[in-house]
Amino acid sequence: MAEPPNDADERRAVPPVICYPTETLPSPNMVIYDAARAQLMTTTRAVVPPREAATVVVPAGHFMRIHSVEGPQVGDLNLFNASNLAERFYSGKTRALHGTHVSTGDRLWSCFPYLRPMATVTHDTLDWYGIDAYGGSVHDVIGTRCDPYTGRLLSGEDYHHCCHSNLTRALAAHTGQELSDAEQHVHDVLNVFMCTGFTRDTGQYFMKASPVRPGDYFEVFAEIDLLAVLSACPGGDCSAEHSSDAAACYPLEMEVLRPADGTLADWAPPLVNQYDQSHGT
Question: In angstroms, rounded to a whole number, what is the distance separating the alpha carbons of residues 208 and 187?
Fold first, then answer.
């Protein structure tokens, strides 16, 4: 370790500055969403089996709920523009704008060059959890997803039911693409129900037992037509390990709900980002 300078304490004491102040970020009109969600009709249900993934299409102006149905289970979520796989969820920018974990009122943003809200979180039965004494919280946009490549790197073994592989198989089945083509679209996830943070001493990403229980759900409003792909993580509640068959795992359920006619009269889908893409040329 390098010898600290004489002014080391002074340098450490410099106050932080928020990278992306959000005061000018257009806020979602939660009043409209709350009114719309008062009368909802289920249109689609999809069960996500343990250590597998499933897909649903969520039309713009509809809601999607991810339900815990049998036992504590976390899920890795990919979102796409249903008609353009190139527009996909951007976890890094969502994290930069809203923080390491998302809940009611936060938005899930799409990648460049689109950069617009794909979905808005409208209800979260785990919003009571907050941030615990370890710095842990729920629904993170930190972790990338468990994958066979890192598993091979760390253990020397192949495991095929990690979330990356589950998402790849489900997307390939939905689109009719070859696995190798579908895999190119699988991206960093929203870890629904997962309780995570960073250790204070080493700064390492940690997971701990999720507080989710049957009956809990995470709800989003689709700002554009969405294809949702959800993996029921092989880590179960992620209290011990993942990328193996050791943990107790349970199914998840995705439910698509349509609001009553006329309840979204004052809502419109967001435009793609208006930057001209000239990049200074």
Answer: 23
Give per-residue pLDDT as tens, 190-213: 999 999 999 999 999 999 999 999
First to last CA, the chain: 44
Other CB atoms within a 10 A radius of the CB of residue 245 amount to 10
User: Does 149 reside within a domain?
Assistant: yes
pLDDT tens figures, 117-153: 999 999 999 999 999 999 999 999 999 999 999 999 9
Q: Could you tell me if residue 64 is inside a domain?
A: yes
Q: Indicate left, alpha or beta for 59 from its phi (over 0: left) and psi (-120 to 50: alpha).
A: beta
Show Cβ contacts of residue 2 under 8 Å, excluding neighbours closer than 6 positions. none
Tokens 């972790």 correspond to 143
Q: Which amino acid is at 276?
A: D
Instruction: Kindly state whether residue 175 falls inside one of the protein's structural domains.
Output: yes
For the cut 90, the answer to whether the pLDDT of residue 65 exceeds it is yes
Q: Name the strand (E) or helix (H) holding 174.
A: helix 163-175
β partners of residue 258? 41
| Residue 239 in domain | yes
Domain count, the chain: 1
The DSSP bridge partners found for residue 67 are 217, 253
Nearest to 139 by CA among 110, 99, 187, 166: 99
Domain that holds residue 83: 45-259
Using alpha carbons, select from 90, 70, 111, 59 the residue that is nearest to residue 220: 59
Q: Which residue has the tokens 């527009």?
A: 87
**Whether the predicted model's global pTM rises above the 0.90 cut:** yes
